[in-house]
Amino acid sequence: MDARITRTRRSLQDALLALARERSLDEITVADIADRAEVNRSSFYQHYSDKDVLLADALDEAVEDVGAPILEIVGPVSGPPKELYGYLQHIEQNADLYRRVLGDHGSPLVTGRVRDRIERLATEAIQRAGIPGFDGVPIDVLAAGITGSALGVVRAWLERDPLPSVATVTDWLWRVLLGPGGAWTEQPAVTAPGKAKRS
User: Is residue 156 pLDDT above 80, yes or no?
Assistant: First the structure.
């Protein structure tokens, strides 16, 4: 894809996410997004048919940003990868937006795109890692289960008030994904990357 197209689309995505942290998605217009991205409305419509398609792309990119490094992990890890923590930080920063997207009245287009991207990444990760212990379970079924579990944990997290910390939900999500049979023999406290663990 042409670099200028990529830059314009990323600018529009960033603009929408920034505006959604300031006010409700319903209050944001295409003109608002174009102004924040410093492009004109015709440029918006050259790339996106409407706000929902733009939002789907923005959240899709967020999943891709975290997914690519996770796919590079080789062999077992002793705790949640820092990329997972980073993705949950992104969700926390856009909590109101994700509550709406993942809620009962969210956009089917946006929710479906997020789910599909996570399933594709899960499928690729399973194929690359050759995860043992799932003989006889089709990869698409396993990927769907991982995706449903992950989105379920995130939705339950976002419904809490006050919102538990990113470190807490990273721990929750990692334990749920490992399952009871994959519990750590040592369970180190989850900390933000670069921060010392509490003794």
Answer: yes
Residue 91's H or E segment, with its range, is helix 82-93
**C-alpha torsion angle, residues 46, 51, 56, 57 (rounded to 10):** 30
**Mean pLDDT score, 61-85:** 73
Nearest to 192 by CA among 176, 168, 172: 168
What's the pTM?
Answer: 0.79
Residue 75 predicted with pLDDT over 70 = no
- Residue 20 gets which letter from DSSP? H
Q: Look at the alpha carbons of 138, 140, 146, 149 in this order and tell me if their dihedral is positive or negative.
A: negative
Half-sphere exposure of 53 (CA within 13 A, CB side): 9
The pairs formed by 90-96 with CB atoms below 8 angstroms and a separation of 24 or more are 90/62, 90/66, 91/154, 91/158, 92/163, 92/166, 93/21, 94/17, 94/20, 94/21, 95/158, 95/163, 96/20, 96/21, 96/24
- The answer to which of 72-81, 111-120, 122-131, 155-164 has the lowest mean pLDDT is 72-81
- Mean per-residue pLDDT over the chain, rounded: 85
Maximum CA extent, the chain: 57
Is the domain defined by 50-182 classed in CATH 1.10.357? yes
CA distance 108 to 110: 6
Q: Domain spans of the chain?
A: 1-48, 50-182
Which token pair is 34? 């174009």
